[in-house]
Specification:
binds coenzyme A, 7-stranded mixed sheet, 5 helices, single chain, 150 residues, alpha+beta
Amino acid sequence: MQVIRAMQASDLDEVVRIENLVFHSPWPQQAFMEAPYTYSWVICEDEVLQGYIIYHTVLDEGIILNFAIDPKFQHQGLGTRLLNETLKILIDSGIRTFFLDVRASNLIAQNLYKKFDFHPIGKRKNYYSEPIEDAIVMVKYIDEWYNKKL
Ligand SMILES: CC(C)(COP(=O)(O)OP(=O)(O)OC[C@H]1O[C@@H](n2cnc3c(N)ncnc32)[C@H](O)[C@@H]1OP(=O)(O)O)[C@@H](O)C(=O)NCCC(=O)NCCS
């Protein structure tokens, strides 16, 4: 059965393995351990860890810091499910605005975020390294989103 649950220390080896597979400049293991104000979840099926998402929150703002699905399980709706369920948890806890940075060339992730009503609001020039690339800053306003659905 597929479940989404809070990330645990015992998940880190697998999370770091996926991180190294999907990103050119991956977070080191230490970065996953030094996150006191983060909310982190994993998606698993029969104990197989398939992906993870990490948010930072400040008052009523949430920032997606890291998000990946193991390439073996991409394009099967897992990213959508993980994003959907974790956004709901944070919205229910009072988060009203979400932000994220995404590589300008990462159209797959941008397409996914647009489906969740994230809008581009700016650019950070040369934000990423290896390769150097701009970040697109995207935002999602919850009250606007709720009003649209009414
Ligand atoms: C971005 C990522 C998390 C999406 O996870 P996923 O499980 O593959 O996504 P889903 O299967 O739920 O697809 C969701 C949407 O993503 C987009 N998408 C997925 N695969 C795509 C592809 N090959 N081409 C274009 N868009 C694609 C589509 O909008 C898709 O919606 P649709 O299936 O209704 O068309 C995953 O591709 C990933 O881990 N990428 C590498 C790490 C990364 O870029 N993280 C985000 C950093 S900001």
